[in-house]
Amino acid sequence: MSNDTDSFALLLHFTPYFQKLCMKETWQQYGTGENRRMLPLHQAISLLGTPLAKTMIKAHILTGDDCMSKVGTKNAAVTSDPVQFFN
Questions:
Q1: What pTM does this model have?
Q2: Residue 15: other Cβ atoms inside 10 A
Q3: Measured distance CA(43)–CA(52) in Å, rounded
Q4: How many CA atoms lie within 13 A of 48 on its CB side?
Q5: Where are the domains of the chain?
Q6: Exposure winner among 18, 27, 47, 63, fewest CB in 10 A?
Q7: Strand 27-30 relative to strand 37-40: parallel, antiparallel, unpaired?
Q8: How far apart are CA 37 and CA 23, in angstroms?
Q9: In the prediction, which pLDDT does 73 show?
Q10: pLDDT value at position 79?
């Protein structure tokens, strides 16, 4: 996969849908060379909860993805309880 946060945010958003289709684990390869590691997206869903995980893509887009300029900061987006605004 990609080192890009856009792909991470997209995969984080769609992992709950993949889980409904019986996919037990979703991993993203991150880093290069000696710093390469695997990120367990299914564990992130467990920690964040599905509503927040599905909301993160919206916060990511508003705070600057590859296609848009940022409207605010990621920290402000996450700490403002974004689930209440995007459900």
A1: 0.61
A2: 22
A3: 13
A4: 23
A5: 5-86
A6: 47
A7: antiparallel
A8: 21
A9: 67
A10: 74
